């Protein structure tokens, strides 16, 4: 199920990139019927967010274990759409105990979805920051920080994002002004439910991925307020 839209020019847009960690093992050890409903549910959420304003909507695509979500432009209202859809996507996967990492950036991007053509600096920036994360997290890149610096949407004012200050979390050559989702909005009886999900995934992941889960738990506890 892929959305058909008119090709857009090479222009500045909000762009989010996600990859599911250990996807082949996940599929190998779970029935495919368990995987597909999660895809469908998340994509339905994204579709609902994209419907109200097609001129300032969001689009998406995916291939194997990689999902991308992007806007038509770089306005603040479009940031709000992409950020919310991306955050919901990330939250839902983590709560379903599916290991994922993602990044959201802003930059020039070109697409022809009918031909599966995607290219531009936004894709490269989001991919590089995404791949350099040594944890299960969702980050906003320095490009987002600088783009929103003078706006009412400045990252320092956003309740669910915190600067990444743990050195082992991200190994990118430019780790400054990176903000991450703080895992601080799902609680039950005072307990952070993200920690439960991370703990369950960690128990299944094995020693090879131990550091990723330790980094995630450390970040959550640091910002668990």
Automatic annotation (TrEMBL):
> Know the name of this protein?
Guanylate cyclase domain-containing protein
- Organism, as annotated: Sulfuriferula nivalis
